[in-house]
Amino acid sequence: MFRSRLGKSREFLSPRKWFWRWVRTKKAFSNPYLLLATSFLAAIVVGAQLLATPWATTAGRLSRTDSWFAATSAVCVTGLTVKSTGQDFTFWGQLVILVLIQFGGIGFMTLSTMVFLGLRQRASLYEQSYLRDYYGADTSQNLPAMTRRVVSYIAWFEACAAALLFVRFALDKPQSLGWLAHLGRSLWAAIFHSISAFCNAGFSLWDDSLVRYSGDWLVNGVIMALIVGGGLGFFVLADLHAAVVAWRQGARARLRFQTRVILSLTVLLIVCGALLLGGLECANPETLAGRPWHGRILPCLFQSVTARTAGFNTVDLNKLAPASLLLIMALMFIGAAPGGTGGGVKVTTFGVLVAQVLWVFRPHREPTVMGRKPRDGLLIKQPFLLRGWLLSLAANFLQS
Question: Which residue has the higher pLDDT, 361 or 348?
Answer without folding.
Answer: 348
